[in-house]
């Protein structure tokens, strides 16, 4: 019996046990256990269903909120890379090797509506009837120059100072830039010459302020970039020498060119015999008169003086410097005008 009792037993509550296994005979406690199991199973099923629903909700939210932001970021990155590649192309491109092409949408401004165009250079205002010459744009062979975006340039120049220095070719480019920028300004009265001067070649300084954007575009007339002067009386000279170009000294107004953000120089058209030797102007270096110096040699010496001044006086971390090469003159033909009495 003791062995049988160890292997098979019948308890008072009707529970029948055999070798660790139990069989229910209708005990109330066992019924509660079964019910609790079914409830637990239902809860687990609900948890699983809720987890699945949460997963799809998370995916949906990610699609709605995350992907657009990610796409925007990727597009921005693509734009940055595109601009970077575009800049690299422009840097490696020879912009001087190209041709003029006809394009729609030009000119970028109407000279008649711009108060800063000299009357002598307003072709339409002076009666020119053809307009084909206004629809040309320079196109390099190896790249595309971005089209002028007036609003972008206005914002780029906000609180800046742009300075042109040179001869009449520089002045007319200065005028054109002002007129191009005025096309993007709503209140034209906010664009004015700082000294209320009319645009003329006889004034050594002209400055136009764009008050809405807090920047100025200035022009300084310096046709040789170096100083012009008369010889002192003590210096021996031939009678033909009336004045000199002091090749080792930059123009006496050069101190006004510093502290600018963009500095554009040009010279060249006055370095010809008719503007120098024919009117008695020769070259001087320090206290020495150089009567035998050629114009190309003098021009090189003047540019070396200019370059030394730039390195010494201009903060290259702030100022972007440009030196413009020769360009066509103002006039293609000469005319003899006969005035009737």
TrEMBL record:
It is a single-pass membrane protein. InterPro entries: TBL, TBL_C, TBL_N. It comes from the Eukaryota. Keywords: Membrane, Signal-anchor, Transmembrane, Transmembrane helix. It is found in: Membrane. Pfam families: PC-Esterase, PMR5N. The chain crosses the membrane at residues 45-66. Residues 92-144 form the Trichome birefringence-like N-terminal domain. Residues 145-332 form the Trichome birefringence-like C-terminal domain. Belongs to the PC-esterase family. TBL subfamily. This is Protein trichome berefringence-like 7. It comes from Stylosanthes scabra.
């Amino acid at each position: 019996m003791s062995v049988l009792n160890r292997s098979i037993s019948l308890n008072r509550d009707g529970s029948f046990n055999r070798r660790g296994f139990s069989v229910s005979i209708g005990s109330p406690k066992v019924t509660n256990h079964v019910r609790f199991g079914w409830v637990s199973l239902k809860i687990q099923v609900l948890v699983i269903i809720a987890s699945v629903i949460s997963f799809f909700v998370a995916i949906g939210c990610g699609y709605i909120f995350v992907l657009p932001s990610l796409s925007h970021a990727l597009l921005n990155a693509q734009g940055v890379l595109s601009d970077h590649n575009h800049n690299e192309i422009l840097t490696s491109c020879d912009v001087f090797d190209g041709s003029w092409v006809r394009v729609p949408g030009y000119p970028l401004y109407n000279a008649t509506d711009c108060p800063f165009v000299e009357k002598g250079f307003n072709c339409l205002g002076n009666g020119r009837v053809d307009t084909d010459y206004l629809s040309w744009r320079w196109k390099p062979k190896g790249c595309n120059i971005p089209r002028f975006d007036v609003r972008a340039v206005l914002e780029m120049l906000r609180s800046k100072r742009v300075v042109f220095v040179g001869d009449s070719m520089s002045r007319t480019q200065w005028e054109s830039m002002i007129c191009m920028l005025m096309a993007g300004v709503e209140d034209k009265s906010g664009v004015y010459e700082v000294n209320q001067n009319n645009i003329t070649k006889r004034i050594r300084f002209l400055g136009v302020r764009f008050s809405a954007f807090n920047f100025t575009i200035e022009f300084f007339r310096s046709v040789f970039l170096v100083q012009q002067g008369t010889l002192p009386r003590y210096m021996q000279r031939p009678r033909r020498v009336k004045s000199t170009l002091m090749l080792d000294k930059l123009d006496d107004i050069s101190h006004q060119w510093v502290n600018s953000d963009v500095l554009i120089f040009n010279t060249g058209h006055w370095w010809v015999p008719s503007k120098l030797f024919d009117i008695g102007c020769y070259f001087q270096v320090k206290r020495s008169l150089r009567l035998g110096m050629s114009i190309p040699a003098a021009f090189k010496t003047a540019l070396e003086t200019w370059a030394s001044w730039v390195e010494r006086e201009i903060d290259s971390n702030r100022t972007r410097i440009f030196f413009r090469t020769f360009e066509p003159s103002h006039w293609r033909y000469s005319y003899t005008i006969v005035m009737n009495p």
